[in-house]
Design goal:
The chain crosses the membrane at residues 30-48, 60-81, 126-153, 174-197, 227-250, 262-283, 331-353, 392-419, 457-482. This protein is mostly helical and 485 residues long. It has a domain at 170-352. It is built from 20 helices and two strands. It has helices spanning 2-22, 27-47, 57-75, 77-82, 88-99, 115-143, 148-154, 165-192, 196-207, 226-240, 243-250, 254-259, 261-284, 299-315, 330-339, 355-373, 390-416, 421-432, 453-467, 471-474, and strands at residues 382-383, 386-387. A two-stranded antiparallel sheet has the order 1-2. It is globular.
């Protein structure tokens, strides 16, 4: 955790450098936040230098959860010190939303913020996205979290009950892919017409499936430049897919991608739901046609682009918006609410339940019909052509039940604070799934600033629980976790 704080402080120095380049007045504040964070991190490392470095299951849960909290509370400092977000509750919410790549914001006017603060805001997304890749590949499978051990068998990562040297190699390769995608998107967005500052910020928010934008209108600001939105769609799709598949693609092992069951279903979801939304938008909703080459980008193209953009954004839990999709039709409002529960692929930076778990739950449910007729038959669930152990199936079902239960409890708690029904269920689903925009008073072109302070802390907890696959956080709240064995 001391090392995490030290790294966090180094990233703050990068934000301070950007602040200095733009002379936005926040350089000293961000630098001071970096120094404080690095000092705390170095001190923690110094005073614990003699301790064993052995990491068992219990330590794994603690490191993951408290490490994220350490990042969040230290990441608040640039906001507080600069005065950009002086309120502690709001600073906590914005920072937790950043590291968990949720993308929900309390900022009423983003465009007046200093460039250094906006860059730090996007950087929290990027750091959180990197961390999620390592969690999915290296740590969660070892802890048996939510069926992620199934993903471990499919990835070129660890196998066994203790940390494996291959974890480091795998993490490095995936970080390089993550960095490469970020650079590639930045260049493409710059060539498409964005300025460099907006391009790099939106690239960091896209690859982390975060959704923080430098504009109050989010990506709707570029509705007259379709190419920018198509580039973001492409990288949202890549960020929501398994990063291990990107590794296979770079190695020339395309067959692994084509045969991957989760990737096929993930792609099918995006295409199928985009077509449905496009048809409804074209015939029922009014989406403005861009003035940029209207003979090419007409009503049909506009409907297709907005549907593809919003479906990809919600499924991958990125949270960028090209329009207020809650105003399109009542059908599409409910439609997009349902998409919040899908999530991207395992091993991606996306939040939500994940496509892999949906596949397993559906397959197991269909097999129950056959098991009812043939109670003595051995009918295992198969994934990518291989039998899946029963304990993994039970783990996934348990995760799903717990996820839905926490969603209901989350909405009930918000309702108890006097928040209306639509806003409460939207805020709970969005925060737990790390989506960002929600419904009711939290509609896509609004923000979360109007929530009571208690509501912001509660949603911060839901963001953390959802981002860390539920069990990692919730197990710390059980009394038997802390008992000596």
């Amino acid at each position: 955790m001391g090392l995490l704080m030290l790294c966090n402080g180094c990233f703050m120095l990068i934000a301070a450098f950007v602040s200095g380049l733009y002379a936005d007045g926040a350089t000293l504040s961000i630098s001071l936040a970096a120094i404080v964070t690095m000092f705390v991190g170095i001190s923690a490392m110094f005073f614990t230098r003699g301790h064993k470095k052995e990491v068992k299951r219990k330590e794994g849960y603690i490191i993951v959860t408290f490490g994220w909290l350490a990042l969040t509370f230290s990441g608040m400092l640039p906001y507080v010190f600069s005065g950009a977000v002086p309120d502690i509750t709001n600073a906590f919410f914005e920072t937790m939303s950043g590291y968990t790549t949720t993308g929900a914001s309390i900022m009423d006017d983003i465009e007046v913020m200093p460039e250094g603060i906006l860059f730090w805001r996007s950087l929290t997304h990027w750091i959180g996205g990197m961390g999620i890749i390592v969690l999915a590949i290296a740590i969660l499978p070892l802890l048996g979290i939510g069926g992620m051990q199934l993903f471990a068998a499919e990835s070129p990562g660890p196998s066994g009950d203790k940390l494996h040297p291959r974890i480091t190699d795998t993490a490095k390769r995936l970080w390089l892919i993550y960095l490469g995608y970020t650079i590639a998107e930045t260049i493409l967005l710059k060539l498409a017409g964005m300025n460099f500052f907006d391009a790099i910020n939106h690239s960091m928010a896209t690859l982390s499936t975060g959704g923080f934008s430098t504009k109050n209108l989010s990506v709707a600001y570029w509705n007259d430049q379709p190419l920018i939105q198509y580039i973001i769609i492409l990288f949202m799709f890549l960020a929501g897919s398994n990063f291990v598949l990107s590794y296979f693609a770079l190695k020339g092992r395309v067959q692994r991608i084509i045969m991957d069951e989760e990737f096929k279903v993930y792609t099918l979801f995006v295409v199928f739901f985009s077509v449905i939304a496009a048809l409804v938008i074209y015939f029922k909703a009014n989406v403005p046609v861009t003035e940029y080459h209207p003979q090419v980008f007409g009503a049909a193209e506009s409907a297709f682009r907005h549907s593809l953009f919003q479906v990809t954004s919600v499924i991958t839990t990125t949270g960028f918006v090209s329009a207020d999709y809650t105003s399109w039709t009542p059908f599409l409002t409910i439609f997009f609410f349902g998409l919040m529960f899908l999530g991207g692929s395992a091993g991606s930076t996306a939040g939500g339940i994940k496509v892999m778990r949906h596949i397993m739950i559906i397959k197991n449910g269909l097999l129950e019909f056959r098991r009812t007729i043939h109670p003595n038959a051995m009918l295992p669930v198969r994934y990518n052509g291989k039998s899946v152990k029963e304990n993994i199936v039970y783990n996934i079902i348990g995760f799903f039940v717990l996820y839905m239960l926490l969603f209901i409890i989350g909405a009930l708690v918000l309702g108890a604070m006097g928040i209306d029904f639509v806003t409460a269920i939207g805020g709970s689903a969005s925060s737990l799934g790390n989506v960002g925009p929600a419904f009711g008073n939290l509609y896509p072109l609004s923000n979360f600033n109007g929530l009571p302070d208690a509501g912001k802390w509660w949603l911060g907890f839901l963001m953390l629980a959802g981002r860390l696959e539920l069990f990692t956080v919730l197990i710390l709240l059980t009394p038997y976790f802390w008992k000596r064995t």
